[in-house]
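FAQ

Q: What does a record look like?
A: Structure on top, sequence underneath. For example:
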C-alpha cells in the first residue's frame, strides 16, 4: 500500500520542474518595493513643503487678482451682467473682511454702506462703493439693462478703492520724522 500512495500522490516538486518564488517575495524585490515607497513619500513631503512655502497673498493682492479675472467681454445678456455685479460685490465684501477684519461678507449692500459709515471709512472710497452698490442693485434686482461702459467704470472704481485702501510702505523721511 505504501508504494501505491507514492505513485498516486507524487510530491509537489515532482509535478513541476522548478519552484520559483515570486519577485516581490525575494530580497531584491522587497528592497525595490521599499525604495519605491520611500520615493513616493519623499515626493509627497516635497509637495506639501513647497505648498506651505508659498507666499500668502495680502488681501489687496487677492482682490486685485480676482478683479482682473473678471472678463467683461463675455457679458452679453442681463444674466451675465447680474453675475458680474454679484461677483463684484462679493469681491468687495470679502476684501473688506480680509483687509479690515470687519464682518462684511454676510451684509447686504445697504448694510455694508452703513457699516462703512459707522467705521468712518475714507469718504472718497465710500462714495465709490455707494455708486458701485447703486449700479449693482439696479442690475441685480431691478432687472435694468447694464451698459458695458457702466460695468467697466464700476470695475475700475473697485480697483481704485482697493489701491486707495492698500497700505503704503513708509519712506525713510517719514521714519526719520517719527523718531524726532
Amino acid at each position: 500500500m505504501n508504494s501505491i500512495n507514492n505513485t498516486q500522490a507524487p510530491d509537489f516538486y515532482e509535478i513541476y520542474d522548478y519552484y520559483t518564488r515570486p519577485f516581490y517575495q525575494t530580497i531584491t524585490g522587497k528592497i525595490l518595493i521599499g525604495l519605491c515607497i520611500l520615493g513616493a513619500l519623499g515626493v509627497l513631503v516635497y509637495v506639501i513643503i513647497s505648498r506651505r512655502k508659498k507666499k500668502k497673498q495680502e488681501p489687496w493682492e487677492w482682490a486685485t487678482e480676482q478683479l482682473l479675472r473678471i472678463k467683461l467681454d463675455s457679458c452679453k445678456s442681463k444674466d451675465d451682467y447680474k453675475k458680474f455685479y454679484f461677483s463684484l460685490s462679493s469681491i468687495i465684501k470679502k476684501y473688506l473682511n480680509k483687509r479690515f477684519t470687519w464682518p462684511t461678507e454676510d451684509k447686504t449692500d445697504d448694510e455694508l454702506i452703513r457699516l462703512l459709515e459707522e467705521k468712518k471709512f475714507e469718504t472718497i472710497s465710500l462714495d465709490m462703493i455707494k455708486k458701485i452698490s447703486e449700479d449693482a442693485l439696479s442690475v441685480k434686482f431691478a432687472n435694468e439693462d447694464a451698459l458695458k461702459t457702466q460695468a467697466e467704470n464700476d470695475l475700475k472704481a473697485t480697483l481704485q478703492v482697493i489701491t486707495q485702501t492698500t497700505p503704503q510702505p513708509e519712506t525713510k523721511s517719514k521714519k526719520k520724522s517719527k523718531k524726532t
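Q: Is there anything notable about this one?
A: The chain has a mean pLDDT of 80.
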